[in-house]
Amino acid sequence: MQFAPLRQRNFALLWWAGLISIAGDWTLRIALPIYVLQLTGSALATSGAVVVSLVPMLLFGLVAGVFVDRWDRRNVMLVVSVLQGLTLLPLLAADSVGRLWIVYAVLFVQSALAQFFMPAENALLPNLVAADQLPAANSLNSLNNNIARLAGPALGGLLAASLGLTGVVLVDAVSFLLAAALVAGIRGRFTAARDADTPPLGVRRELAEGLRTAAASPMLRALLAIVTATSVGEGIMGGLFPVFVTGPLHGGARELGWTMSSQAIGGILGGLLGGRVAARVAPKQLLTWSLVLFGLIDLAIFNYPRWADVLWPGLVLFVVVGVPSVLSGVAWMTLVQGAVGDAYRGRIFSLTMVLQALAALLGAGLAGPLAEPLGVMNLLTVQGTVPILCGIGFALISSRLGDRPYPAVVSPEREPVAEAS
Question: Contact at 8 Å (CB) between 389 and 309?
């Protein structure tokens, strides 16, 4: 059951396309900030590249979901992959400080295109596998993300050292084009069934329709609240993680790399186990218990340095925490995919991405001002309680909902699409 989705041609093509393109992304994600820092000697210029990548998510994220629900999702992924490969090439000309604007422009365009690709992929997946294989498919998707996360940075560092930015850009561009070729092999039409035969209402009205759909479903409200709350914690963790490793863990750049690799290894283990566990545990229960377990392990990670100043327990715990992290993600994704009709999935996943971005920005903004008065370990301890509270809260909410369906609220011109909670 764990690998059954890979025996289906369409899903296998999507899986390999994701693995190749994500690995290519990680090579550039590692190499480009190093290149900008070497080119400018400015940490501000390097952080500017991060900010530029976030802006399109806030500008275009919600609107992109409207078009993902209008267009054939396979074609969206195909066209976006080709465009992402081609729009990387101007980076080859960014060889001086005076041409740094090219880096920012490319990152902006890449991020804007990604706002279409990711909702399309998540909305397409339930149409490629049987319903009983959906948890396993989501688990396998998490597996390829973590394999790429483990291999991509190492490849990026190697290419940057041996071939410079040129080699990294060409490898990433080829990865997008290979992914596009694989996506092109997926057979079938994947326009949302209802919207294929219904004239568009207009971007603003369809966007409002998607937001009302999310607001009308108690299950979706709970799931979106979880991803928002945990993303605030991830923003805090992202801002303080290097401080935690170099401070309480007494590490440096090498140890920081070890901890990141440990997380990826844990994610791979979680991806391998996810399908088996999800086949035995209902998604609601799996989400509850994996969130609680994730939070408890986080608390252990952030507090053991109070009693021991060695690194190895942290590395072990970073591997272990990857398992409930993946399991919670698999359960969450499966519940969202089942809680909304196909015609609305693009807008719901776009909304999710925007909420995650805003919440992560809030968390990162809180990390700096609060770290000094509260202390790094104390603030991370507070952050570690968030998944536990989310798991307990979701258990209470889902027990009240039971298995009742909640119809989507839509515009008068539309027929409601039933949801499974």
Answer: no
Structure letter (DSSP) for residue 112: H
Tell me which amino acid residue 318 is: F
Domains 1-191 and 195-421 share a fold: yes
DSSP output for 73-132? HHHHHHHHHHHHHHHTGGGGG--SGGGHHHHHHHHHHHHHHHHHHHHHHHHHGGGTS-GG
List Cα–Cα distances, 219 to 65, 312, 401, in angstroms: 20, 40, 8
Q: Which residues of the chain have pLDDT under 50?
A: 195-196, 405-421
Q: Which of 191, 131, 210, 224 is nearest to 408 (CA)?
A: 210
**Topology given in CATH for the domain delimited by 195-421:** Growth Hormone; Chain: A; (1.20.1250)
Question: Do residues 275 and 1 lie in contact, with contact meaning Cβ atoms separated by under 8 Å?
Answer: yes
The model's pTM is 0.80
* CA distance readout (Å), 99 to 38, 43, 87, 95: 14, 17, 16, 7
**Which of 79, 88, 82 is closest to 106 using CA atoms?**
88
pLDDT of residue 405: 45
